[in-house]
Amino acid sequence: MPLFGTSGIRGVVDQDLTPGLCHEVAQALATSLTVRSRVCLATDTRVSRNVLKEAIIAGLLSCGVDVTDLGILPTPVLALLTREWEFDAGIMVTASHNPPEFNGIKLFNRDSIGYSPEQEWQIERLYSQKQFREAPSGMLQQGRGMRESYLDFIRQKLPVKSLNRGLKVVIDAGNGAASGFVTSLFTDLDLQVLPLNDVPDGLFPGRSPEPRGDTLQTTVDFLREKEADLALCFDGDADRVVFCDREGFLGFNEPTAFISRLVAERSPKSRIASTVESGRLLELAVQDLGVEVVRGKVGDVHLAHLTREAGASIGTEQVGVYIIPEAGYYPDSIFAALVLLSRVGKAGEIRELFAGLPRLFFDKSKVPCPNPVKESVMQEVRGRVESFESKGVNDLDGIRLEFDDAWLLIRASGTEPAIRVIAESESPSRTEELLARGTVTVQAIVDKRR
Fold it and tell me: Considering the domain boundaries, does residue 168 fall inside one?
């Protein structure tokens, strides 16, 4: 099994991800950098954060790299400060949307873009060889002024005077890295803010760190009770954001398509980047703008590099990832939310746009699957493709089957031990049928390997 998945290194703490592994990964990273390089590091709120952070810091220092500890921060802030404060690399200790028992490591370059697969392979090779540099110890210091620096950046990049301060906005931080940070930031921007699950707690007592329709009902109830207009719901490290209004969860594809349109309308660029997991709503939302949607592999690292290589105005994943080159080639949910709040007159505009478009029905499931057998499971799935009688097959990342009225995607998750199944069509029954068929097929194959 390779160390890196679609979004860094991820695993269950003390099983897949141990302090010893983190120490050696840090030594490998430090060895790939020059002596006295400067690295910044932040974490989300998980209870394992300190023991893993200490192991990483010790590994970096032992190879002659200087470290600045930024504490608990959203991933987009860590990525931005890596660039703005001129660090040579940035490390985020997080498992993003995974359950509390998971944690992980994400690496960022000095220009804020995530480490490419080639760079990850270099780190993995050094880790495997265990030939780490010996050097006088680096220095450790604590960061200061992170929120203020991010706020200054927002004020430089966004027309903050146009923010819709008439909207009442719920900030559901999910007890993750956004806790306190986003509420404070939005308050400084004179927005009307109602905080929810806004206390850092790595057990995520308020709700799951993965914001979805089935985990956000309490948020919707709170929004209605407070007569708010919109809820911004962040995942564990705040590199994702999804939205709710008084009618409920706004969906995955709807906000990403809406915000993509907002950005594309004001950009001279004629492309939008996305992944094989995104639905056809994205094309429908921008078809009158003459904008092309370019799809690539799943994962914010793949998406960031695709966005840059394609010269796209924005990169999106339907789970709520937004990469806006105006800010940088990293996922910035906070910046994306502020773009939305600076362009809409009322929360209902999102639903109004899609009321005028053909209705699509999108759903997904996942089948638990041990990491060591994922590849063999997917090989057997490929052998059964013909039985689905699709019109076309896209095997760029997993297997996406195209039909006249629908599509079905089956792919191995790069962040957890599971096989994901996603379907979209023009009718709920067709989506349900495809999703069930794909899920049953995968489950049967996995069961044979238990």
Answer: yes
What residues form DSSP beta bridges with 41? 69, 91
pTM of the full predicted structure? 0.93
What pLDDT digit, counting tens, does each position of 157-187 carry? 998 889 999 999 999 999 999 999 999 999 9
Q: Within 10 Å of residue 12's Cβ, how many Cβ atoms? A: 16
Binned at pLDDT 50, 70 and 90, residue 360 comes out as very high
pLDDT of 306 > 80? The answer is yes
Helix (H) or strand (E) holding 298: none
Q: Is 62 found in the same domain as 50? A: yes
Residues spanned by the domain of 268 = 252-358
Pair (10, 123) in one structural domain: yes
| Rounded CA separation 401/386 (Å) | 10
* 3-class secondary-structure state, position 254: helix
Based on the fold, state whether residues 125 and 169 are members of the same structural domain: no
Same domain for 130 and 217: no
The reply to whether 191 falls in a domain is: yes
| 283 within some domain | yes
**Residue of 10, 3, 235 lying closest to 105 (CA atoms):** 10
Both 43 and 108 in a single domain?
A: yes
Q: Are 230 and 265 in the same domain?
A: no
1-5, 216-220, 352-356: segment of lowest average pLDDT: 1-5
Q: What is 156-196 written as a DSSP string?
A: HHS-GGGS-TTSEEEEE-TTSTTTTHHHHHHHHTT-EEEEE
Q: In 246-314, at which residue ranges do the beta strands (DSSP E only) sit?
A: 248-249, 271-275, 292-296
Residues 406 and 319 in one domain: no
CATH number, domain with residue 87: 3.40.120.10
E-assigned strand segments in 23-153: 38-43, 66-72, 89-93, 102-109, 140-142
Tokens describing residue 234: 């962040």
- pLDDT tens track for 338-356: 999 999 999 999 999 999 8
* Sign of the dihedral defined by the CA atoms of residues 350, 352, 313, 403, in that order: positive
- Residue 259 · residue 340 · CB < 8 Å: yes
pLDDT tens per residue, range 68-122:
999 999 999 999 999 999 999 999 999 999 999 999 999 999 999 999 999 999 9
Number of domains in the chain: 4
Q: Has residue 369 been placed in a domain?
A: yes
Distance between the two ends of the chain, CA-based, in angstroms?
A: 18
128 is catalytic: no
Cα-atom radius of gyration of the chain, to the nearest Å?
A: 21
CATH number at residue 403: 3.30.310.50
Distance CA 181, CA 190 (A): 15
Q: Which residues on adjacent β-strands are paired with residue 193? A: 169
Domain boundary among 76, 111, 144: 144
Catalytic residue among 7, 32, 37, 96: 96
